[in-house]
Amino acid sequence: MSDTINFRLNGEAVRLTVPPLKRLVDILRDDLNLTGTKEGCGEGQCGACSVLVDGRLANSCLIPAALLAGRSIVTIEGYRNSARFDHLKACFEKAGALQCGFCTPGMILAAEALLCQNPKPTQADVRVALAGNLCRCTGYNMIVEAVLLAAREGGKLWSQPTGL
Amino acid sequence: MVTTYRPITLREALEIRSQARTILLAGGSDLMVRQRVWSGTIPQFSNPVVLISHLKELQEISLTENILQIGAGCTLAQIINDPGVPAYLKLPLSQMATPAIRNLGTIGGNICNSSPAGDTLPMLYALDARLTLQSKESARSVDIAEFITGPGHNSLQSDEILSQITVTLPGCSRYFYRKVGARQAMCISKLSFFGLADTLTEENDSLIRDVRIAFGAAAPTVIRSREAENLLKGRRCSRVPQLRGDILACYERLLSPLDDLRSSKEYRRTVALNLLDNFLTNDLQRSCVE
Amino acid sequence: MKDSENISKAIKRSDFDDKIEGRAQYCADLRYEEMLYAKTLRSEKARARIISVETPPLPAGYCIVDYHDIPGRNIVPIIYEDQPFLAQDRVNYIGEPILLVVGPDKQIILDLLSKIRVSYEELKPILDITQAERPQEEYIFENKPCFVEYAYGKGNIEKAIENSSFFIEDEFRTGYQEQAYLETQAMIAVYEEERLTVRGSMQCPFYLIDALTQALGWPKERIRVIQLPTGGGFGGKEDYPMLPAVHAALAALKTQRPVQLVLDRQEDIIGSTKRHPAIIRIRSYLDNQNNITGREIDIKTDAGAYAGLSSVVLQRMMFSVAGVYNVENLHVLAKAYATNKVVSGAFRGFGGPQAFFAIEMHMENIARKLNLDSLELKRKYFLRQGDTSSTGGLYQYEIKLAEITAKIDDLSGYSRKVNSPTAKNNSLYGLGCSVFYHGCGFTGSNEQDQIKAKVLLKKYRDNSVQIFVSSTEIGQGAQTTLRKIVAHTLEIPLEQVKQDYPDTDYCPDSGPTVASRTILIVGKLLHDCALKLKERWSEEETEICQEYQYPEDLSWDKDKFQGDAYHDYSWGANVLEVEIDPLTYAINILGIWAVYDIGTPIDEKIVRGQIEGGIVQGLGYGGLEVLTAEKGSLRQNNFAGYMIPTALDVPDIVSELVWNPNEKGPFGARGLGELALIGVAPALALAVQNALGRQVKQIPLTPEYIMELMQNV
Asked: I need a labelling partner for C406 at 20 to 30 A (CA). Which of B221, B287, C71, C665 fits?
């Protein structure tokens, strides 16, 4: 019923024995007490559970444990220790891009996934990159501004690896 | 709880398939939702699950001459980012779901889902995609239109795995794709239209060498009318206005859209014909003056 | 320090670091030792008698909680006593809670739930307003079709009708709207030392105290409610949390263990309250000079299975429907119908969005019939200082509608664009302009009659000051703006002022976090309280309580609906510019402009966040958020079905404020939260109407509806 799975989580090797179809969001929240990853819908429709899988954005509610083998996962708990996070955080603050906060960890990781691939995005690029992360509070534009600001003032932050 | 297999190779996966009735789980973007019950519980599957999205054999993309081969386990994002894949093939994929889901969902998963609203399908139908269905002992190749037999139904046998999609890339001078949904991202299509044409510019006019037209979510399966395409092939673009009525009529006969949660049959029918008419008028007819 | 200027300058939110770092612990993030989970069994029938409930044998450690476990009264304390916490012998909507299964393992809970058999005797359900209007064998509520039926007016409508030359009439329909807060409803209850503590996601901690005392039959002293970080509310966490709070509490009491109850998204959508669908008919009477001399308005709302807050929503709707216009003679009839569907309730705007959609469309239709510019016609009837309101109250303060509309015209180029060749020749391009207000605080004298808010400030030895209020931080910035008000009043650094999430053991009841009242009412009380504290600043340690007093210059007759319907009003105008896709009939929004009078903005960044968030919810309401019921069952019951706007669905938004400090608000502030949502749907609908040259009669404006409008000549 349970398999042992090896993967990297926030830069560290993890070995877990869990049912192979257990969802990553439940592993993070229930087994590892990493509750910065939120569950808003459980259907891949809201993006609150977004994490990075091998550097790419993914919904942790859609990923079964067995698919984690050999992958590298980054959640907000790991990402918040990076210089890029500090910069994004400052830009989110400056732009007023946070209200209830429930979508925010996912939104931050969506911004990271974008800036990693495209350090100088247009406004349209940002909207596309955030399109899977619902926010009911802000109406998005202040978040879009925050990400554009992060790109504009980010210097070389996104041309270097985070080490995660 | 069901057994879950994580085979290391395709061969191993096929071995498992040959022995028991199983459910294939690729990117999970659809099945993990459908089988979900409650936050904090394991999704409930009725048969043993075989995970396949990690299999290297299913993740190759290759282009030889004009033959494009895409492994069924390729994610939508992987195909979108592949430099060898033509833009008209990427366009429908790049409008599917969300960036996060495009990183998980696979092209093979979308095909095997066989939803009338599957967004890879109209394009694949239009391109006469051939599917390689592998079993332990053999492999067969079928046309996508034969493979999908109805909404959510296809001819995948219990010992088979869809391993590869093969497309002979047509000449293409114009293409037009439109996904019609309730919002700009993250929605199941109410309707979709894929049109592609290869025109050869001659003096004052153009010759339609090839044309492909397909609709998604307009009938139980994707619709494509060879009859209509043949009416256009070999004609001059300037003739399109005269042919327009017949072409629209061909498709009108094939449209059998549904009333459902997302839209009405009247809307789907009307918009399908609008999009077709737009393709004929703005993409084909105008080719003659360029 | 010039407070009135300084206070507007944006500061860092109090809750910013915790939330952005993922450290804020929402209800579902908490784990207690020996914590149990609960899941609700809900009615699958729209209307039925429960004949029997058969339950399987329960393994050790599992239990079922149903109405038998309620030691007190099984009635939700809202306004009317008609709704049970858990269904007893009948159900009135699909999704109504019947019982809960509680235990340590979620999978076993699911297995037990699947083995419970409820036998129903189905009754004929009443599924919509039209059906509810017909005579019934058995009504849902008492012996009548409506929960409430109201009428009010001003002037002499009969005389106005008699003297009129003609009338212009419209009927409009609006749909449901789901709050779609990102965090679903969630509660944790803990029973310890003869006391129950409930923590969770909520707008109104003291509503839960009322609910828990009623259900448990306990004195207030034995119950404690603590708000946790809350992932959005928008009205959806005003009254509804009383149900999950009581459910979790009953389970904790029965098991003597902490119990967590977190609703799944689908349960949340089918079970929790929605914005009321409405049918509004307006008939305006005009004299032979084309002056609007009288107006008759008929409002019907679909209130769902229980009365909930429908009576007060209806009141706000019937006051709002007069719009920003002074028409001498008015008569409004309003009814909230009982139907066998999910309970309609509070949603940002609280009756305002439906009303302003109707009145703004109607005013433009009159202008069109009279061949007048719509803004010119509206200006002619704009409310002014000294005017009598529709309820006979006096508009005491300056109303800057002329300035607001001049400014929005300037910003958006509305008048120029409306008369441009593009607008005249392009049949699919249009603009719409709406003008609106929002009455801030509770309707009438309810701040006095029902709430009587109290606030408490404590000064400690280290010169820090702590705010004790029941106002909740639900994303709108209450923990930042209230601290600013106190710090600025005391003229001390912001860091010296503390405010925690409300805990009813320590906070007085300063009322619910609703009705755009947090700044206007609670903020003002804190301001007054801080002024007193300032005078006693030399005391080493002190605490001061401030209690709400109904202003002497206001009056309200709650039976006749006469007097001042609101303490104050905030004002606004929106312009939307759209084009319609000729192939798909989808609306492409080219621009959104917004101008408001909210008095003094308490924090410019928080204000902008409220404005843009409200506008985008309004866009969803008018445009893409479809929620329909079939045989009493909500069809769009998850986030794949119920679609709210994404980042790609929102254009740039240009907003500005006009400077008009409110003498009654703290630092001149008025209410804002709801205002920003209200005007969007009418501006959108007018833009579409003008683009198509066809009358829009309903929202949401789906492409399917737009196609129908274009095809029906």
From this structure: C665
User: Where do the DSSP E strands lie in C558-687?
Assistant: 562-563, 568-580, 587-597, 629-630, 633-634, 653-657
Neighbouring residues of C646: CB distance < 8 A, sequence distance ≥ 6: A130, A131, A132, A134, A140, B183, B184, B185, B186
Q: Which of residues 74-133 of A touch C (CB under 8 A)?
A: 75-77, 80, 89, 92-93, 96, 98-105, 108, 126-128, 130-133
Q: In this structure, what are the phi and psi dihedrals at residue C583, rounded to the nearest 5 degrees?
A: -90, -40
Residue written as token pair 């970080």: C229
Residue type, C254: K
Q: Check residue C56 and report its DSSP letter.
A: P
**CA distance linking residue C584 with residue C706, whole number of Å:** 9
Those chains having 3 or more beta-carbon pairs within 8 angstroms of chain C are A, B
Residues in chain A: 164
Residue A159 structure tokens: 């041309």
Helix, strand, coil proportions of chain B in percent (round to 5)?
Answer: 35, 25, 40
C-chain residues near B271 (CB < 8 A): 583-585, 703, 707
Q: From the CA atom positions of chain C, what is the Rg in Å?
A: 25
Alpha-carbon distance B120 to nearest alpha carbon in chain A (angstroms): 19
- The Cα–Cα gap between C594 and C579 comes to 19
> pLDDT averaged over chain B?
96
The answer to whether residues C627 and C634 touch, using CB atoms and an 8 Å cutoff, is yes
Interface test with A, best of C14, C21, C26, C616 (most A CBs within 10 A): C21
pLDDT in tens, C666-692: 999 999 999 999 999 999 999 999 999
Provide the CB-side half-sphere exposure for C587 (13 A, CA).
33
**DSSP secondary structure letters along C372-435:** --HHHHHHHHB--TTPBPTTB-B--S---HHHHHHHHHHHHTHHHHHTSHHHHH-TTEEEEEEE
User: What's the distance, CA C649 to chain centroid?
Assistant: 23
CB contact set of B143 (below 8 Å; sequence gap of 6+): B128, B129, B130, B131
pTM: 0.98
φ, ψ of residue A17 in degrees (nearest 5): -110, 110
Question: Considering Cα of C417, then C419, then C422, then C426, what sign does the dihedral take?
Answer: positive
Task: Give pLDDT, residue C3.
Answer: 47
C641 touching B (Cβ < 8 Å): yes
How much is the ipTM here? 0.98
Q: Which residues have a Cβ under 8 Å from the Cβ of C226 and sit 6 or more positions away?
A: C197, C198, C199, C205, C501, C502, C503, C504
Of C4, C2, C9, the C-alpha closest to C669 is C4
Q: Which residue has the tokens 């980042």?
A: C647
Nearest chain A Cα distance for residue C201, angstroms? 11
- Residue identified by tokens 């039925």 is C48
Provide the chain A residues 32-51 that lie in CB contact (below 8 A) with chain C.
Answer: 33, 35-43, 45-46, 48
Chain B neighbours, 3+ Cβ pairs < 8 A:
A, C
Residues C595, C572: Cα–Cα separation, whole Å: 6
Contact A67 B51 (CB under 8 A): yes
Residue corresponding to tokens 């992958």: A71
Q: Which residues contact C153 (CB under 8 A, 6 or more apart)?
A: C329, C330, C331, C332, C390
A69-88 per-position pLDDT tens digit: 999 999 999 999 999 999 99
Please tell me chain A's helix, strand, coil percentages from 3-state DSSP, rounded to the nearest 5: 40, 15, 40
Tell me the Cα Rg of chain A. 15
Tokens representing C590? 């080219």
Burial label for C367, CB within 10 Å (0-12, 13-18, 19+), is middle
